[in-house]
Specification:
Organism: Ceyx cyanopectus
Number of helices: 2
InterPro entries: U3_snoRNA-assocProt_15_C
Pfam family, one: UTP15_C
Shape: rod-shaped
Structural class: mainly alpha
GO cellular component, one term: nucleolus
Radius of gyration: 29 Å
Oligomer: single chain
Strand content: under 5%
Domain U3 small nucleolar RNA-associated protein 15 C-terminal: 2-47
C-alpha cells in the first residue's frame, strides 16, 4: 500500500527514497528475527517432544514394575 501511494515520487525525492531504504532495512531485520525465532521454536519443539517421550517411557516402566499405585476409592469404610 505504501509503495502504491509513493510510487509516482520514487526517484524524484531524496527524502522519500531515503525513507524507502530505511523501510527496506527494517523489513530485512524483521525477516531475520522471524527466521531466528522459527529456528528457536523448532529447537523447543524438539526438546518438548523428547521430554514428553521420556516422561511417557518412565511412566510405562513404573507401571510394568508395579511401582505405581492405582488411584481409587477407599473401600474400607
Amino acid at each position: 500500500l505504501i509503495t502504491d501511494i509513493y510510487q509516482p515520487v520514487v526517484g524524484q525525492s531524496v527524502i522519500v527514497d531515503r525513507q524507502f531504504l530505511r523501510l527496506q532495512e527494517a523489513i530485512g531485520k524483521e525477516i531475520d528475527y522471524q527466521e531466528e525465532l522459527l529456528e528457536v521454536l523448532g529447537m523447543m519443539d524438539t526438546l518438548f517432544a523428547t521430554f514428553t517421550k521420556k516422561r511417557d517411557t518412565c511412566l510405562e516402566e513404573n507401571k510394568s514394575n508395579g511401582l505405581t499405585e492405582p488411584i481409587g476409592t477407599n473401600t474400607s469404610n
